[in-house]
Amino acid sequence: MTRTHGNQPTGPAAAVAAPAMSSFPKRFIYPFFLVHMLMFGISGFVLAYGAEADIVFLYMHGGIAIVVYMVFYLLIFGPDRIKWMLVNAGLGIFGIYSQIGWILGLFGRNAGDYPPHVHAIPVLYYVLYTFLLRQLVLDVARARDDPARRRLVEAGYVVLSLAFYGLSLWLR
Description:
Oligomer: single chain
Number of domains: 1
Low-confidence stretches: 1-7, 9-19
Distance between the termini: 44 Å
Shape: globular
Order of helices and strands: HHHHHHH
Number of strands: 0
Mean pLDDT: 80
């Protein structure tokens, strides 16, 4: 896939991503998805780590919602950004796991108290939510199409994320 100014996709991806982004006002996208996904993320967290976790219902409830969110993300943000969301999630799994552990620690529990398959849905919600936050920061800072501003905003985002992860590990 070739790139044009502003790191926008061309070819088949442009046919999917460009009309989608222009047809959805960003003033609607971020508030709607931040609130909606937060509600589903909290419910997925409670279903996974509640007293009587029903793993089948957790995967049905959370799995269907995550697939639907991924479809919307592909249409709104485009395949290239989604690819990097998944790459960064893979690289940052330890950071994500520390956050799950920190959140569980607030309730007197540990991530190690649960088998790995229980963490899948909460971790995927975390990946989707942090991706959405990063997109919001890029748009609010008007850095998406300004390479110099984008580098500055992304560096700040990484520094603040690392500081937050470090603080959460320190507070555990």
